[in-house]
Amino acid sequence: MFVRPSQALRSVAAAFAALLAVSGCSAASMSPLGLKAVSSPDQSLGDAISPDASLLKALKKQVVIGSTVDPVNGAQNPYGLTIAPSTTGDFAAGDLVVCNFNGKSNVQGTGQSVIALHPTPSSTPKHVSKLKSLRGCDALALDGGDFVWASSMVANDNPVIDASGKLIDDIKGKPFSQPWGQVYAQSTSGSPAFYETNAHTGTVVRINLASGFTYDTIATGFPVNHGKPGTALAPSGLAYDATIDTLYFADGDNNTVVAFKNVSSIPAGGIKAIDNGMKFGGPNADDARIVYSGDPLNGPISTALLPNGNLVVGNTLDADGKNLLIELSTTSGTVLDVRNVDKGSAGAIFGIVATGTNSSNAKIYFNDDNDNNVQVLER
Length: 379
Known about the structure:
- The structure is a single chain.
- A hairpin with a 4-residue loop joins strand 25 and strand 26.
- It contains 2 helices and 26 strands.
- The chain has helices at about 5-25, 55-60; strands spanning about 60-65, 75-85, 95-100, 115, 125-130, 135-140, 150, 160, 165-170, 180-185, 195-200, 205-210, 215-220, 235-240, 245-250, 255-260, 270-275, 280, 290-295, 300-305, 310-315, 325-330, 335-340, 350-355, 365-370, 375-379.
- The protein is mainly beta.
- The protein has one domain (about 5-379): TolB, C-terminal domain (Neuraminidase).
């Protein structure tokens, strides 16, 4: 379905396309050296990591990076987490970019906040933006020019914000309904796009950036629980592997992790989840598969792509005293490791992102809502 964007947003897309054309590079290649967040695994440097070996198990050190509480409006409860690919506006390349789900009062879904942290211990949060269209922001992704594309469940909006925190446009209305996931994707041969999921409808939407915008609802029928802010379970935690043009996401309502191969080619209506999301129909049903289902997944809400092509997944419904990260092999569909990263109240782990190119420099960053901070697992 074609949707007419604002002139400002069309200008952003045109400028980004022109930048890629002039530079002769893809958006995925615009990440800083050694940084492969939500991008392609690269084992060309250092010790390659076998997909059959656990990376999570090798990262023994857990370190606090810094507080995620917005220094301007006090928003807290960090949900969305991504990495700035370039130095633009308020971002330095490699900065951790966070959106807060709750306001200063800690009421669920009242946050209106994007902050940035340098990826080093004892960092101080930098306020980037506070907008009504960020209310209840649960996920965000940045394009190669550091424009923020956010999923705001409570505002029912996908705001696009420049690198200085200025609102460029609001993307809302059909096919968006309680946005609940967001990732930027640039395949090795295709056009750049964002993928977005919805907590109300259980759909997956592709936002095509080339030659204006088209919004394709490429998948429907995934299970949701229609939960209020702070209790919603639906497709979320999107990650993208450019080397195999595959989109991954978790569904906390049926405790699965799903993969769509050839995702940039899946048309509107291509996949229909059936049998509570455990089977697939539609003309592109063969492009969808369950990577893993069941225990130890328990209300998974976030995923991150690791340098060896595996996924790390974060639970939200573990018992108190457990906040589990789970590493899954995307090829064999096996659990490689389980790590409890917070022994406090359950439901603390939301956004996750991984960086690095090999077993020596890989890191896994995650938001911890119990402590309102970002932490890192490293060697």
